[in-house]
């Protein structure tokens, strides 16, 4: 599912959609708020997921429709993995003795 790449960055969120794909129903109500830009988008996604839930098969058309609603959102980059790059290193800090 290409759409999930626009909002999924926590491993625990994999239980909400991608790991259920083609096996279990997926509810828009179970997804985090960051998965939707607007309430209207959430309604459209819910309609697409309703179609998916009828036969538990995500068609390429449904996947494209999900992505099209969220296409303008940049991919999520997990900041937690980059935190090592952004942290101040002690050996670079100058300590002033009083």
Top keywords for this entry?
single chain; 98 residues; mainly alpha
What does this structure look like?
The protein has one domain. It is 36% helix and 0% strand. It has helices at 39-55, 60-69, 79-86.
Helical amount? 25-40%
The structure class reads: mainly alpha
Tertiary shape: globular
Number of strands: 0
Rg from alpha-carbon coordinates: 19 Å
Short description:
The protein has three helices and no strands. With 98 residues, it is an all-alpha fold. The termini are far apart.
What topology does this entry show?
Layout: H1 39-55, H2 60-69, H3 79-86
Helix pairs in contact: 1-2
């Amino acid at each position: 599912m290409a759409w999930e790449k626009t909002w999924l960055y926590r491993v625990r969120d994999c239980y909400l959609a991608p790991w259920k794909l083609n096996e279990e129903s997926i509810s828009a109500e179970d997804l985090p708020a960051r998965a939707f830009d607007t309430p209207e988008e959430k309604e459209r996604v819910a309609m697409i997921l309703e179609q998916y839930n009828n036969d538990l098969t995500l068609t390429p058309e449904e996947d494209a429709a999900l992505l099209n609603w969220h296409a303008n959102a940049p991919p999520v980059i997990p900041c937690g993995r980059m935190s090592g790059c952004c942290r101040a290193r002690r050996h670079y800090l100058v300590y002033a003795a009083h």
